[in-house]
Amino acid sequence: MKRAVLLVLGFWFCLIPLTVKAQSSIPVITTDELKKIYDAKEDFLLINALSHIEHAEESIAGSVNIPYSRLKDGKSKLPENKGKKLVFYCKGPK
Question: What global pTM score does this model have?
Fold first, then answer.
């Protein structure tokens, strides 16, 4: 089963290119769309891709912190449940 991955693009959110190839196949949602998913209590995992320090300073309630650098280096793994919808967010490109 293909894992559903959504990326949030909004005011201080950015696209997280996990791979160049994947960029075109990953849906991007707005902050308004994320709010609808959140308010509807849909089953999804909200992943804050900021550093641990940035996550401590500001994050969306209920999000988990998996820094992009740890995903890229293979030091962090995504959840085993391939059916779970994943939503990544961050502050933007540096």
Answer: 0.67
